[in-house]
Amino acid sequence: MMPQVKQDNSVNGRIGYIDALKGFTIFLVVFNHVSIFYLQVPVDAISFHYYFIQLQMPMFFLLSGFFSYKAGEMWNVGSVFNRLKKRVPRLLIAPFLFLVVLCYVKGIGLNNALLNPLKQGYWFTFILFGYYLLYVIIRLCTRSDKWAGVVAIVLGIVLFPTSWVEYYLRIPVPEHILGLLSVFFWGSFIYFVLGVLLKRHFDQALACLHGKWLLPLCILSYIFINVFYKDIPVGDMYKELPLVLSGLVVFFGFFEKKQELFSNQHRLGRVLQYMGRRTLDIYLIHFFMIPLDFKIITVFMDHSMPVIEAFVAAVIAVLIIAVSLLVSEILRLSPFLAHWLFGAKKA
């Protein structure tokens, strides 16, 4: 029997547990930034945030692709131009304005920030716009959703190695151009494409998720690859994709199967759904509360205490998100600021 999708969110008919998943994912982003920059936990340490890092950005790209796809859209130059124009304030102008202010506050040269692949943390929205533009080009050059999906998957596989330094350094392009275009993050295009395909084949994907084998296979694969990661006799690149894909299925599957918990009928669900509808606001604002050169607690650098570290990071992350949302609501009092800072529709 085909599983039923419960749209418990009253905002534009969106699926509540998917908004909640977005909200939890932005929590993981802030949580990891706190762990790395506030608590100085090494990236490769025995820590909860090590495992969250594996999945947080791939999940964001997957969800971005999911929300980018709309069945029945017209694919001609005029309609595509209008859709791109709507994304420019949200994905280019808004993060650029925040980047300019952040560089001024921190005394960083804007030119240096723009030529750095990380863009002081604001790389995600610029790359996301590039992903959408790339998918638009593919869609305009193909005649159907089916062939667009095939071409996009192939291109995603081709770009995937760019996220590994040994391949990245071989690209015959000047380093400052690579930094400006954040080429190091092009490898995640595959997750954006998978999000588009997930939305297009959503009923079939849910049927597989509720089948007998997919979830147990992905749970075991994710655990096995993580436990024996260093002993698996292939390069990291060949382990990364099955590791992340299996983790994403488990991650998504948990929220889908526990969707009642993340519905509007529960406080947790309402909070996460609200955060899910304000992910861009949280993302843009929270960097001002996590200075990249600030050290508040360094004990975790030398002493591995995963549970305590996770608790401290979670508490700080919740406070930062709460303040970010408060600032967001204040700024959104002005329709002008809401549009140009967060890409909200003009009143």
Please describe the topology of this protein.
Elements: H1 16-38, H2 48-68, H3 77-106, H4 110-115, H5 123-141, H6 145-159, H7 165-168, H8 175-180, H9 189-200, H10 202-209, H11 214-227, H12 236-257, H13 267-276, H14 279-286, H15 299-302, H16 306-331, H17 335-342
Shape: globular
Q: What's the total count of β strands? A: 0
In whole angstroms, how far apart are the ends? 43 Å
> What helical percentage do the residues reach?
55-70%
The succession of helices and strands, N to C, reads HHHHHHHHHHHHHHHHH
Low-confidence stretches: 1-7
Mean pLDDT: 87
Rg computed from alpha carbons, rounded to a whole number of angstroms: 20 Å
Question: Biggest β-sheet, characterized?
Answer: none
How would you describe this structure to a colleague?
By secondary structure, the chain is mostly helical. 68% of the residues lie in helices and 0% in strands. It has 17 helices and no strands. It has helices spanning 16-38, 48-68, 77-106, 110-115, 123-141, 145-159, 165-168, 175-180, 189-200, 202-209, 214-227, 236-257, 267-276, 279-286, 299-302, 306-331, 335-342. α6 runs antiparallel to α9 (189-200). The longest helix is centred in the first third of the chain and has 30 residues, at 77-106. The radius of gyration is 20 Å and the shape is globular. The termini are far apart. Residues 1-7 have low confidence and may be disordered.
